[in-house]
Design brief:
The protein is of the alpha/beta class. It contains six helices and five strands; from the N terminus they run βαβαβαβαβαα. Bound molecules: manganese (II) ion.
């Protein structure tokens, strides 16, 4: 075991229990530490308290929606370098623009592809932050 290896911490914000538990299970299997939140207020609290390395943030959540949570976090100095990834079934062109404006660094489409998820998370942790704009030119998301 590598002594210097510190597992990355991922905050998963998702109000759908089945979806949240699936993502948690997949990421725990890959060695990540996971923190969970079920609504916008809890998302802000956990983000500030737990200082995650990445936030996977559902757009449609109770209290504050994902756009609002992302905007508020990106207004804080400590979240400038933290990737906040939209977790959404609505990644149509107009939504992707809203996602960029809100300050998200990328998105992962729902329903989640459990084989692709670990690589997507790893890429975002490594700073693959241009993916929304790149994806917009290359493809139309069907959903
Ligand atoms: Mn939701």
């Amino acid at each position: 075991m590598e002594k210097t290896h510190i597992p990355k911490k991922i905050l998963i914000v998702e109000d759908n229990e089945d979806s949240r538990e699936l993502v948690v299970k997949v990421l725990k299997n890959k060695g990540y530490v996971t923190v969970e939140a079920v609504d916008g207020e809890e998302a802000l609290e956990k983000a500030i308290a737990e200082k995650p390395d990445l936030i996977l943030l559902d757009i449609s959540i109770p209290k504050l929606d994902g756009y609002e949570v992302a905007k508020r976090l990106k207004n804080m100095e400590e979240f400038q370098g933290i990737p906040i990834i939209a977790f959404t079934a609505h990644a149509m062109k107009g939504d992707r623009e809203k996602i960029i404006v809100a300050g998200f660094e990328g998105y992962i489409s729902k329903p989640v592809n459990i084989r692709k998820l670990p690589e997507q998370i790893r890429a975002y942790l490594k700073g693959k932050w241009e993916s929304i704009l790149g994806g917009e030119e290359k493809q139309d998301i069907d959903c």
